[in-house]
Amino acid sequence: MDEPHVAPLNARVRVWRGGGRFVPWVDPDGGGTGARVLVLMEAPGPATVAAGDLSFSSEHNPDPTARIFRALREESGLVRGDYLRWNVMPWALLGADGRHRPPRVDDLAEAEPALRELVGALPELRVVVTFGAPALTGMMRLLTVEQPPRLLPVLGVPHPSLRNGHRRAETRQRILVALRTAAAATRA
To answer: Which residues have C-beta within 8 Å of that of residue 149, sequence separation ≥ 6?
Structure first.
């Protein structure tokens, strides 16, 4: 977790964990600070949270979303070391009932400084692929609420979760095209 390419990012994770928030570690198998593609999901999911202090934001997490993403990432040709997987909400969100909930506008506003720090720590970043409406909204807020740190292409695709099963073929195709486009941007 403190390999040179992820140590500065995981130092931020330690700060974001302040106040008792759960934030997973940055996956050392990814691109870390050298990432050219940012894969932005919504928030740490139940399986990640269940892994506790040893959890990572990773395509190897034990849940269907991670498995679907990993298969499509591999098919797309996007190299593991070229991207960083993260969440627009770095910390887990739980409703009053204790269950995982999606980010709201106020949550995205609260998390925006963390996203700004993350993007600022990725000097090689060329493209962002957002998964789901909250991730896209959070990234667009970052680029439009104030002067962006730099202008980045953003590809918005549906979240790869099973809840998008009603349009599974279209969701799969959109994710695959976006990841292929991002992979091509790493070679440009």
So the answer is: 116, 119, 120
Main-chain phi, psi angles of 127, to 5 degrees: -155, 150
The model's pLDDT over 109-166, given as tens digits with 9 standing for 90+, comes to 999 999 999 999 999 999 999 999 999 999 999 999 888 778 899 999 998 876 665 5
Terminal C-alpha separation, the chain:
30
Give the span between the Cα atoms of 24 and 53, in whole angstroms: 7
Q: Kind and range of the H or E element at 171?
A: helix 168-187
Contact 50, 153 (CB under 8 A): no
**143-163 CB burial, b ≥16 within 10 A, e <16:** beeeeeeeebebbbbbbbbee
Task: Check: pTM over 0.85? Answer yes or no.
Answer: yes
Is residue 69 exposed (0-12), middle (13-18) or buried (19+ Cβ within 10 Å)? buried
**3-state secondary structure at position 121:** coil
Strand residues in 53-122 grouped as ranges (E): 56-57, 83-87
